[in-house]
User: Fold Probable purine permease from Glycine soja.
Amino acid sequence: MAVKSQSPPLHHQFLSTTPNDYTSDIESIDQEGPESLSNPTPFMENTEQHHHEDQKSMKNKRYKFLLFINYVLLFVGSVSSSLLTKYYFNHKGSSKWVSTWVQCAGFPFLIIPIFLPSLLNYTERKPFTDFTPKMLCYSFCIGVMLGFNNLLYSFGVAYLPVSTSALLLSSQLVFTLILSAIIVKQKITFSNLNSVILITMSSIILALNSSHEKPQGLTQKDYFIGFSCTIGAGLLFSLYLPLMEKIYERVYCYGMVMEMQLVMEIAATVLATGGMVYKGGFSEMKEEADRVFDKGNTFYWVTVVLSVVTWQCCFMGTAGMVFLTSSLTGGVSATALLSMNVLAGWLVYHDAFKGFKIVATVLCIWGFCSYVYGMYIKREQEEEAKRRNSSGGTTTELIPNGNRMVV
Assistant:
């Protein structure tokens, strides 16, 4: 991904300009292409006049707080949604479409982060300001892809132990690195390549040693379906990350990220709802709650509601991480949490956790630590370069450059 050191941060500008300023500037970007960002304009000159104020309010305070909040959302959402999904299937819930539907049906919760800042006068920007038809189209198409990803994930977790499916999903990281290099020109370094190799090795070790963990009564065919669907879900997710990073290059504030996320989740919900209607999912849901779920009606609906909430936390955190950092960093962060899912599956559901699975988990954590250490070294080198040459320097992953962390 190309460095844009000459470009002032886009999402700082909403503090110092009016919505009309944004409309004209975004139209200019659409006509001239991303390259126009590298040339000074009156819009950017206006931002430069408020550069110090913007850095203090966004980079030093709001930016770090927002980054922390998205890490928390990703952590809580990833671990909780994984455990709740397995809880649903463990207690005789069996509908893959219900499991798919709850992953996106919580989109109304996104109204809170979209409209609350405006209602509290936290920002002058009004919701859906500068939300162009092109952004709407992009969001809807990616939302449909996300819906298919949710369905594949549901099939995978229905047939595999939570720890096995979690570690298999780590294979998405190698796809994320490759697709990020192609789509957003992600620079491949020793640090991120080493991380991808280690985490991928953990998946291979697991795959060679996990066939004996089939749940009781599961056929070889169903196990193969679950294994394949989990890998497919990882592949689609790895495509989703760099595509969103590419689109976020023209997004200047976190509010717009949530607005796009709302459209994506609505599109995914339409797909899941269509499947529910076609397969009789809603009547099946009522039947499961009244007669099938062995924990009773109340626990069934509590499980459904909590799943809806935690899945939204997971997707909000993922979108925020991609926007604030990069697709690869977001992918690495999500993959690192898979080891937490493995440990949670062992603690809560007593999934087997020994031998090769321990080795695979250690490799996964080792890979993440390698990535973080590589970013730390690069950051130290960057800071040293800036001290020696105040006129410029390059940015590295997790080094804020306005509203983004670029490579």
